[in-house]
C-alpha cells in the first residue's frame, strides 16, 4: 500500500526513531552567547537530546561589523561574494559556526572568513576529548561547518574518520541528525581512497565531504562551504535551516558546481557523487553563483527513502559470523548493504513515497546507477512517477571509480534524484558493498541458472579487507549439489583438514550431523576473526 504521510506525521515518526532533532531544538535553558568571534561550549550548559546520548548546544550569535571575507581573499569568486553582500543579496556568515576538531592542526584561518563564529570547548570537554576527532555528541542549533585532519593511523583497525563513522554502531544515525541540523564536516580520506587499495568506503552518503589526501587537504573544501553559506540569500538561508534542508542543499550546490559537472545528466551520474572530492574539482565561482540564485520556491526537496522488500540471507548457511548481517545501516537519505550471501543475485524494493515538496508540488523522481556494472545492475521503476523501484544486482567484479581511472571500487551505488522545480536534489544514496577479497566461483546448475560452486574466504597476500566488516575466516568452502541441483552441503578446507557440512549448516560427524556456531572473536589489539564452535559452550576447533 502506498504511504500517505503528512509532513508533520513524517517528522514525528522520524523523531521517534531518534533520527531527527524534532522538539529538542525548542527545549528550555539559556543559550550560550558568542563573544569576540568565538563561542565557548560549556558542558554544564548542554541539554540532553534524544535517546542516543546526544547533547544540544543552544547558541546566540550577535551580529558584528566584521566583513564577510578577509582582505587577502581577492579571487573572482571572492569579488563576486563581496558584491553580493554589499548589495544585500547574500546573507554572509553571520550566525554560522566553524568547529575545528584537530586542536588547530588544520584550522580555517579566522582572518579569511571573519564573520564565522569559532567553536571552542571548556576544560571539562577537552579533557573528555569531546573537542577532538570525529564530530561527537554535541549538536548545535545553528548552521555549522567543521573539520578534523585526523585519522585512526595505527593497529589492525586503521581507517579515516568517515570510514570510522560509517562502521561504528549508531554512527550513521548521528551523522543523519547532524545533517538535518545543518552541520557538515570535512575529513581527509587518509589511505582510504588511494591506488593501492582503491576506494575503501563501505557506503556513499551525503553526510560529510571527504578530501583527497591527508592533513590540510580539507581546507579548500572548508572555504567552499563557508562561501556557499555566505552566498545564500538571507530569506533562502533562513528557510533552509528552519526546514532542515540546509546541509542537503549545500551538498547539491557543491556537487552541481564541480568543475567536470557541466550538465544535468553529468550531475545525475557518479561523476558528481564520488566518495572523495579532489580539491582541483572545486569551482568557487559556480558555487557562489548557484547558491545566490536559489530562492525558497526553487529549493529542491530532500529525498526520503525506505526499503520495502529485500532478499534475506541466513547466517550459518549463506554467510558465516554470528552478529554479522547484510544491513549496514538505514537512514531516510542513505541506505547501505553488505553482500555477504553466496547468492549470485540480490534484489530490493525501495520507496521514496515519504518525500515531500514544501511548496506542495508533485515532484518527479529519477533513478540512476552511479557506480557499478551497467550490464549486471538493473533499476526497474514500479509505478509511473518512480515512487518505488526494484533494484536487482548480479555478482560483479570491481570497476574503476567514475572519473578516476586509477582507482577501483568494490561498491555499487544507486542515486535517487527528486526534481520539482529548476534544480535536482542531492540524491538519496543506496550502496551495496561486495567482498572482493573473497574468491568466488559461480557456475550454471541443471536449469542454467548460476549457483555458487566455491568460496575462498582467506584474504590473499597484499589484498586489504576491512576487518570490522569482514572478520578473518581462514577456510575455503566447496559446495555440493544433488542430481536435481539442490544444495546438499559443502566441504570446508582449512588448517584442520576437510570438514563436511550438510545443507542446514550442520557438521557431519560419525555420530551424525552436529549443530555448530561461527563465533566472531575480537581480541584486543588484533583483527576480529571467525572461529568454528561445536555446541553452545564448546571451545574453538
Describe the largest sheet: 6 strands, parallel
Structural class of the helix and strand makeup? alpha/beta
Q: Rounded to an integer, what's the Rg over CA atoms?
A: 25 Å
Number of helices: 10
Write out the strand line-up for the largest beta sheet, numbering strands in chain order.
2-7-6-9-12-15
What can you see in these coordinates?
The protein is of the alpha/beta class and 541 residues long. Helices cover 16% and strands 30% of the residues. Helix 2 (76-86) packs parallel to helix 10. The longest helix is centred in the middle third of the chain and has 13 residues, at 219-231.
Task: Give descriptors for this structure.
alpha/beta, 5-stranded mixed sheet, globular, 541 residues, 6-stranded parallel sheet
Which helices and strands appear, and what pairs or packs with what?
Layout: H1 7-16, E1 32-33, E2 38-41, E3 47-49, E4 54-57, E5 59-60, H2 76-86, E6 97-100, E7 117-121, H3 123-127, E8 138-140, E9 144-147, E10 151-152, E11 159-160, H4 161-166, H5 171-180, E12 183-188, E13 193-194, E14 198-199, E15 209-211, H6 219-231, H7 234-242, H8 246-256, H9 264-267, H10 284-293, E16 306-310, E17 327-330, E18 334-338, E19 345-351, E20 364-371, E21 377-381, E22 388-394, E23 399-401, E24 404-409, E25 411-419, E26 428-433, E27 439-444, E28 450-456, E29 475-481, E30 487-494, E31 497-502, E32 507-509, E33 512-514, E34 516-521, E35 529-534
Parallel strand pairs: 1-5, 2-7, 4-8, 6-7, 6-9, 9-12, 12-15, 18-26
Antiparallel strand pairs: 3-4, 10-11, 13-14, 16-19, 17-18, 19-22, 20-25, 21-22, 23-24, 25-26, 27-28, 28-29, 29-30, 30-31, 32-33, 34-35
Helix pairs in contact: 2-10, 6-10
Amino acid at each position: 500500500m502506498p504511504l500517505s504521510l503528512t509532513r508533520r506525521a513524517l517528522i514525528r515518526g522520524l523523531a521517534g526513531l531518534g533520527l531527527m532533532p524534532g522538539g529538542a531544538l525548542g527545549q528550555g535553558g539559556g543559550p550560550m552567547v558568542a563573544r569576540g568571534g568565538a563561542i565557548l561550549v560549556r558542558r554544564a550548559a548542554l541539554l540532553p537530546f534524544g535517546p542516543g546520548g546526544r547533547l544540544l548546544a543552544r547558541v546566540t550569535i550577535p551580529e558584528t561589523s566584521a566583513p564577510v571575507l578577509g582582505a587577502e581573499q581577492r579571487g573572482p569568486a571572492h569579488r563576486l561574494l563581496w558584491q553580493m553582500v554589499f548589495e544585500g543579496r547574500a546573507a554572509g556568515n553571520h550566525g554560522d559556526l566553524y568547529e575545528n576538531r584537530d586542536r588547530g592542526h588544520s584550522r580555517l584561518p579566522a582572518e579569511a572568513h571573519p564573520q564565522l563564529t569559532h567553536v571552542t570547548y571548556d576544560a571539562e570537554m577537552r579533557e573528555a576529548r569531546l573537542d577532538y576527532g570525529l564530530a561527537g555528541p554535541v549538536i548545535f542549533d545553528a548552521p555549522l561547518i567543521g573539520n578534523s585532519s585526523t585519522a585512526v593511523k595505527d593497529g589492525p583497525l586503521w581507517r579515516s574518520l568517515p570510514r570510522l563513522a560509517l562502521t561504528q554502531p549508531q554512527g550513521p544515525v548521528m551523522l543523519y541528525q547532524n545533517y538535518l541540523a545543518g552541520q557538515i564536516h570535512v575529513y581527509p580520506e587518509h589511505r582510504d581512497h588511494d591506488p593501492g587499495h582503491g576506494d575503501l568506503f563501505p557506503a556513499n552518503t551525503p553526510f560529510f565531504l571527504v578530501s583527497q589526501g591527508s592533513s590540510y587537504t580539507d581546507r579548500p573544501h572548508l572555504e567552499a562551504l563557508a562561501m556557499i553559506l555566505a552566498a545564500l540569500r538571507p530569506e533562502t538561508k533562513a528557510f533552509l535551516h528552519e526546514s532542515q534542508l540546509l546541509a542537503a542543499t549545500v551538498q547539491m550546490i557543491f556537487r552541481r558546481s564541480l568543475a567536470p559537472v557541466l550538465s544535468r545528466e553529468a550531475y545525475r551520474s557518479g561523476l558528481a557523487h564520488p566518495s572523495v572530492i579532489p580539491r582541483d574539482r572545486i569551482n568557487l565561482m559556480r558555487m557562489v553563483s548557484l547558491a545566490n540564485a536559489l530562492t525558497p520556491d526553487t529549493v529542491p526537496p530532500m529525498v526520503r527513502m525506505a526499503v520495502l522488500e529485500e532478499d534475506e540471507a541466513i547466517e550459518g548457511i549463506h554467510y558465516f559470523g554470528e552478529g554479522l548481517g547484510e544491513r549496514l545501516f538505514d537512514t531516510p537519505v542513505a541506505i547501505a548493504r553488505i553482500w555477504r550471501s553466496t547468492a549470485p543475485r540480490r534484489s530490493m524494493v525501495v520507496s521514496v513515497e515519504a518525500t515531500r515538496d514544501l511548496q506542495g508540488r508533485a515532484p518527479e523522481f529519477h533513478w540512476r546507477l552511479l557506480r557499478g556494472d551497467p550490464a549486471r545492475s538493473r533499476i526497474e521503476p514500479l509505478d509511473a512517477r518512480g515512487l518505488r523501484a526494484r533494484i536487482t544486482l548480479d555478482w560483479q567484479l570491481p570497476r574503476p571509480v567514475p572519473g578516476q581511472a586509477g582507482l577501483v571500487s568494490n561498491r555499487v551505488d544507486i542515486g535517487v534524484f527528486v526534481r520539482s522545480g529548476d534544480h535536482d536534489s542531492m540524491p538519496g544514496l543506496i550502496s551495496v558493498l561486495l567482498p572482493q577479497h573473497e574468491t568466488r566461483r559461480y557456475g550454471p546448475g541443471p536449469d542454467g541458472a548460476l549457483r555458487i560452486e566455491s568460496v575462498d574466504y582467506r584474504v590473499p597476500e597484499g589484498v586489504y579487507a576491512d576487518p570490522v566488516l569482514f572478520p578473518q575466516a581462514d577456510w575455503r568452502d566447496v559446495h555440493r549439489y544433488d542430481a536435481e541441483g539442490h544444495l546438499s552441503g559443502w566441504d570446508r578446507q582449512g588448517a584442520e583438514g576437510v570438514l563436511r557440512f550438510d545443507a542446514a549448516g550442520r557438521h557431519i560427524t560419525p555420530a551424525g550431523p552436529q549443530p555448530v556456531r561461527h563465533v566472531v572473536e575480537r581480541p584486543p589489539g588484533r583483527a576480529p576473526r571467525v572461529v568454528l564452535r561445536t555446541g553452545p559452550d564448546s571451545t574453538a576447533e
